[in-house]
Amino acid sequence: MTDKVQLEIKAPVAVVTLNKPDRLNALDFEMWEDIRQAAEALDASADVRVAILTGAGGAFCAGLDLKAGSTLSLPADLSPAQALAHIREHVAHLQACFSRLEACRVPVIAAIQRCCIGGGLELALCCDIRLAAEGTVFSIPEAQVGIVPDMGGTQRLPRTVGVGKAKELIYSARRIDAAEALRIGLVNAVVPAGDLWATTTELADEIAANAPLAVQAAKRAINGTYWREVDAWLRWEGEQAAPVLLSEDRIAGLQAGAQKKRAEFRGR
Question: Which among 33, 89, 142, 248 is annotated as catalytic?
Answer without folding.
Answer: 142
